[in-house]
Amino acid sequence: MPGIMTAESPTDPVPAPPPGATAGDLLALIRSGGATTRGELGRVTGLSRTAVNARLLALAAAGLVLEGDEESATGGRPASTLVLNRDAGLVLAVAIGRSRSQLSVCSLDGTELAQASHDQEIGVGPDVLMPVVAGHLARMLAELDRSGEEVIGVGLSLPGTVDRRRVVSVDSPALAGWDGIALAPYLREVTGAPLVIDNDCNVMALSERDGHLCDHDDVLVLKASTGLGIGIIAGGRLIQGHLGAAGEIGHVKVAPAEGLLCRCGDIGCLEAVAGGWALVERLRAQGQEVDHVRDLVAQAVHGNGSARSVVRESGRRVGDALAATVTVLNPSAVVVGGDMAGAFDTFAAGLRDTLFPATTALAGRNLQVLPSTYGERAGLVGCVRLALEAVLSPRAVDAALARRR
After folding, report:
1. What residues form DSSP beta bridges with 239?
2. What is the CATH number of domain 212-372?
3. Does the pLDDT at position 149 exceed 80?
4. What residues have CB less than 8 Å from 76, skipping those under 6 apart?
5. How far does CA 358 lie from the centroid of its chain?
6. Long-range contacts of range 345-350, CB-CB < 8 Å, 24 or more positions apart?
7. Would you say 30 and 83 are in contact if contact means Cβ atoms under 8 Å apart?
8. What pLDDT is recorded for position 104?
9. What is the full DSSP assignment across 86-148?
10. Is residue 374 within 8 Å of 241, Cβ to Cβ?
11. What are the tens digits of pLDDT across the range 23-78?
12. Nearest to 320 by CA among 263, 366, 372, 359
C-alpha cells in the first residue's frame, strides 16, 4: 500500500456506509469497530456474501486487512475477526508551534513508534525550521530501520489559518514569514507521501475523537497558549468556515483590550489581554523572570500568586468572550488544551466565573468545562489522526485500489 495513497480533507467521523458500500467503506467499518466479521459487514452494509468477500480480497491484496482472532458467533460457526493491518505503512506527524515543534512516527492504528521534540527560536522561518524537521523525521525512520517509502501520509499543524488545498499557511501572527510558502517540498527527501495540514486548534479538536468526543457531539476545543483559538465540533463534525478561519477567537475585539496592540498588528484583540504572550510581557514588565507561557504556568502551579492571578484573569477574559459562541452553538462541553491547561484548575475557575453568567440558562445547562484528553501531546495526536483520516478515508482507499487494478 505505501506509495500509492492520496489524501483528502479529513474532517468528519465515519458515516453510515451508503448502499453499495465500497471496499473503502468496509475498511472504515473495520477500523472503527463498527463491523469486524464478514457476517457483520454484510448485515451493516446490505452487501451479499460474494460482494463482501470481493471487497475484502482487494483490501487484503493491498495489505490493509488481516484475519484476526476468532470469536464465537451466536448460534453458528466461529467467525474470523477482521483487523486493520497496522504494519501496512507509516504516518508521520508534525505539530509546529511558535517556539516548539513535536514530531512522531506512527503505525496505521495510531500507535507511536518514535517521537521527538525540537525547541526553536521564536520567529524562525521555514527555510531554517523545515530542514530541521525533515532531519528529525529521517533520523527517527532510520532508527526504526524503516524507509520513507513505507510512509503513506504526513499530518502537519500550524498556528493560524491555513489553506488545506494549497498546503500553505495564509495568516499566522505566530509564524512570520510562513504565509504562502509551500511546505511539501521540504519533506520530499524524507518521503513522497501526501502532506495534509490544518491549524493547531482544529487538530487539537481531532485529537478528541478518541477522547471527549466519545461522549459529546457538540464541543468547543479551546487552545489557550501563547495565542488563543477554538476548534469547533458541531454534530460530530469539525467546522472550519468559508476560508478556514473559523475559531479565531483570539482576535475578537473586546473592551478590556481597547487601544492595545495585538501581535497580529490590529488593535483591541482578546489576545492582547488574555493570550499567553501578553501575560508573559506583563509579568516581565513587573520584573519577574518569565520567558514563555510554560514558565508562567509552572509558576502558577507551584503557588506563585502573581502567576496564578494572571492565569485566572486570562480564563475570565476568555470566558467572557466565549460566552456568545456558547450561546449561539450550544455545545455540551468546552475542552481546554494548550499550555494554559497545565494550570487547568486555575484557568478553568476564571473561565467559569464569566462564561456561565454570560450565557443563556439553557446554553449553560449541563455545560461541562474539561481538560483536553491528551494534554501537551494533543496537537501531535491530532496530527496523527489528520494523516490517518486523510489517507485511510473510504474515498482515498478506493482511489488507491483503483490504481492498483
Report:
1. 232
2. 3.30.420.40
3. yes
4. 39
5. 29
6. 346/300, 346/308, 346/311, 346/312, 346/315, 347/224, 347/311, 347/312, 347/314, 347/315, 348/315, 349/312, 349/315, 350/311, 350/312, 350/313, 350/314, 350/315, 350/316, 350/317, 350/318, 350/319
7. yes
8. 97
9. GGG-EEEEEEE-SSEEEEEEEETT--EEEEEEEE--TT--HHHHHHHHHHHHHHHHHHTT--G
10. no
11. 999 999 999 999 999 999 999 999 999 999 999 999 999 999 998 765 554 555 56
12. 359
How much is the average pLDDT of 304-327?
Answer: 96
All CATH 3.30.420.40 domain ranges of the chain, comma separated, are 88-200+379-390, 212-372
Q: How far apart are CA 112 and CA 118, in angstroms?
A: 17
Give the long-range contacts of residues 178-183, CB within 8 A, separation 24 or more: 178/125, 178/126, 181/126, 183/126, 183/130, 183/156
Does residue 101 surpass a pLDDT of 70? yes
pLDDT value for 197? 96
**Which residues of the chain does CATH 1.10.10.10 include?**
23-87+392-404
List the Cα angle 79/87/40 in 5-degree steps. 25
**pLDDT (0 to 100) of residue 4:** 41
Per-residue b or e along 151-177, where b marks 16 or more CB atoms closer than 10 Å to that residue's CB? bbbbbbbbbbbbebeebbbbbbbbbee
Model confidence band, residue 167 (pLDDT cutoffs 50, 70, 90): very high
In tens, the pLDDT along 230-283 reads: 999 999 999 999 888 899 999 999 999 999 999 989 999 999 999 999 999 999
Rounded to 5 degrees, what are φ and ψ at 167? Answer: 60, 55
Sign of CA dihedral 49, 50, 51, 54: positive
For residue 131, the model assigns a pLDDT of 97
Going through 126-206 in order, the beta strands assigned E by DSSP cover: 151-158, 161-163, 168-171, 195-199
Architecture of domain 88-200+379-390: 2-Layer Sandwich (3.30)
- Asked whether the beta carbons of 115 and 103 are under 8 A apart, the reply is yes
Domain covering 23-87+392-404, topology: Arc Repressor Mutant, subunit A (1.10.10)
Q: What is the pLDDT of residue 70?
A: 54
> Model-level pTM?
0.89
In the block, residue with C-alpha cell 495564509: 170
Length of the chain as a residue count = 405
